[in-house]
Amino acid sequence: MTFRVTILGSSSASPTPKRNPSAHALNVHEQFFLVDCGEGTQKQLRSAGINPLKLNAVFITHLHGDHVFGLFGLISTMGLMGRRTPLKVYAPRPFDEILANHLHYFDAALPYQVQWHEVRTREHELLYENKVLEVWSVPLRHKIPAAGFLFREKTPPLNLLKEAIGRYGLNVAQCVAAKRGEDIPLGDGTTIPNQQLTYTPYEGRSYAYLSDTLYSAKAARLVTGVDLLYHEATFAEQDKTMARETGHSTASQAAKAALAAGARRLLIGHFSSRYKDASGLVEEARELFAETEAVVEGRSYDIPVKKTQPE
Fold it and tell me: Are 283 and 151 contained in the same domain?
């Protein structure tokens, strides 16, 4: 029941000798997703031991180069690796035009489909769903249209209370119905409420990616209760004027967002190249939100299972 985020890039517009442009890889139950794809992402995937062919979908926040330039090389490489499964790419317009030009000039004979899905950056809407996961868009405040993403694990199937099976003499059909969430009628005319027969084995987990953006109370509200929040912290508070002018946040504003969202943990990144060491940004954020860390490229951050106790 893995729920793990691996940091592939943490720099802002310019890469540095120690930081690559933005990219995160998410593993949910051994299903892999890529969030943003700056230059060098395919090399970073390999360094992290993540096979690009396992990617289910790619989510692009906005069409600034430091968040998307790496995707075109990755698309080509996956073709060379023999990918046959379609790749879903979620990105704002006009990514469809950019993709069409790339395919025309560089990958006309690609052996798989790249399926573009529009991200409407002013909408909070369900973009992707499977048996274990939902992905929602989160409107952001940047210089161009941008959206963050909320990855939310679905509530797992109900488990049966073993003692209830014997106590009520449940047969196979009744057990199956109970696991579907139904109340169970017995032969004596009584009905047993489902909550007396089942329990949820663990709570669904969540991860939100909010970059690039000014502080947004709306975005914080839309990710309320998130377990792990990644929020850009491009600048220190002393450079807040520059942050505002460029459509970015300070470390203090990232912490403010985590506090407003009721997040359990905060990861900050997308650091300006002017800061050689992120420790000052972490200290600044921790003044408001103690559970703050600066991301480290190549490191993975697990969200542990929160088991519930049967009543």
Answer: yes
